[in-house]
Description:
Blueprint: H1 2-28, H2 30-36, E1 41-46, E2 53-54, E3 60-72, H3 82-89, H4 93-105, H5 107-110, E4 115-121, H6 123-131, E5 139-148, H7 155-158, E6 161-163, H8 166-171, E7 180-182, H9 185-189, H10 191-194, E8 199-205, E9 211-214, E10 230-232, H11 236-245, E11 251-257, E12 262-269, H12 274-278, H13 280-289, H14 298-301, H15 311-321, E13 335-338, E14 341-344, H16 354-360, H17 363-374, H18 382-394, H19 417-424, H20 448-459, E15 463-464, E16 470-472, H21 476-481, E17 486-487, H22 495-507, E18 527-533, E19 541-548, E20 555-561, H23 571-584, H24 590-598, E21 606-607, E22 610-611
Parallel strand pairs: 2-10
Antiparallel strand pairs: 1-8, 2-3, 3-4, 3-5, 6-7, 8-9, 10-16, 11-12, 11-20, 13-14, 15-17, 18-19, 19-20, 21-22
Amino acid sequence: MDKKVFLIAGIIIAALCLAARLFYLQLIDERYKVNANNNALLYQTKYPARGEIKDRNGNTLVGNKTTYDIMVTPIDLREFDTVDFCQTFHLDIESVRKKLQYYRENRRKIGYQTFTFLKQVPSEYYNHYAEKAYKFPGFYAISRTARVYPFGAGASLYGYINEADSAYLANNPEYRRGDYVGITGIERSYEDVLRGKKGYNIMVRDVHNRIRQSFRNGEMDVEAEPGKDLVASIDGELQQYGERLMQNKVGSIVAIEPATGEILAIVSAPGLTVDDLSNIRKEYGRLATDPYKPMFNRAVMSAYPPGSVFKTVNALVAQQMGAITPETRFSCSRGFYYAGGKMGCHGHRSPLNLKESIMMSCNAYYANVFRAMMKNPDHQPIAEAFDYWKEQVMKFGIGVKLGSDFPAELQGNLPSTKTYDKIHGKGKWNAFNILSLAIGQGEVGATPLQIANVGAIIANRGYYIIPHLIKNAPDSLRRAKYTEKHWVGVDREHFDPVVEGMYLAVNAPPGAGGTSRRAYIEDIAVCGKTGTAQNPHGRDNSVFMCFAPKENPKIAVCVYLENSGAGGTWAAPVASLIVEKYLKGEVSRKELEQVVENANLKQFVPVRGKKR
């Protein structure tokens, strides 16, 4: 009997709980009521304004303008004047009629769905529409924002936004069809900061499915939250200037503030223009098939042979290993000779010490340096010495990703013992087989960003901060990553002869043997190193790495120009103009500036096997 009582009591309690829950859901919880009445409600999305991007001086690099998406709910369509509609939006009438025919034929399948009929309609078209919107039942407008670029430069580093595709939506469920997302550059790296948060208006339908009013006078509506602004490390004027200098050239410029790792300018040429970004859907096909690959950012995605700028790294590593001292001298007779081969060099006085070897960029000197590192008695056999050398070089950010906030950054290339075991056979290679590494050739490849970072390391006498594009972002963890010093494991005193050699390369009197005289700037102590990198696809690549001033440096630069010849001929003057522009605010060497701007070096770059 007691069991029956307990059973009946349990059933009554469960029924009461269920009734209470239903009462709460249906009469008290407004969220449930709103969701349950979805068939009678229309949710109109409010899209947030994307965060703006400012430069380090407060200038707007990437802003917003108001546009409109014209939405259509096919079930609400009634007869309307299609000619008037097409004239309002400057549309082809046949394409509109085809869409309307599709809606009629699929009315049952479509149901209450709403679609985007027109995207990013400019304000002038929308204003005409707004005056007579009542004539077009079933259509309504949603305010959107589109990107504008007041400074007119830096398109390749900002990147572009586009509508999220099916693959992206599948991996990011917080996005919906019709949402825009950063695809490349800063827009992609800082999507979570820039995107903002969507809101919505809830509208009530009547029994005939006509929209009558807002639900509960808008008390359940949610406002959109705009994205947060970013302050870029970029100097907008320097970026503009760099792009001017790189007209009709193929290559890149990277400028870094050594003390902070902030990227001051990053140019890839040929590159995207701000007009390309503004019309990316229309221009994408042309850009993707352009043989010069303007969508390919050479500054962070091209692993070039660094050439003779790599001698600075070997000089520093060799000193730290004890293989050489600043006073170590090697002779050069227009090259380095060894059994079965020769590494050529230009004519200069001989023998040279370390400082002079940097100033004159002697190949023979560094062949001897590399041989000495590979014969170090503490690291035998050669594979062990080579592994140790590689480990030290990687500390300079060569052959590894630096970890910048540029999403497409590559790690470059640094060979391993396995590389040469495969090429020559295990135990069958020596320093002479891999001698090209002494002068930045062969299997070593570095991006211009990595080369500029080496310049920053030398400027800082031993450390770097990961190069980055954002100076200030609302993300404390991200900022912390870009404040840490990365020491390369070379004692400070070993930098002195390298810095002095780089200074003399630019500032030694004419005829003294400096390879970088075209980078000379009066009143600015520029320290630089040329590179002439051999290129299997035509003329040599022109490379220059520098920093300035010599003491308390403010800028480190890498210029890499494809198929442009000697480093001192073109890359050095481009870099020096960048340095002068940044440190002085204006350029006094107008003649040199004009020569650089007018130079068409693009013509020497083979495209699909032909010179253009």
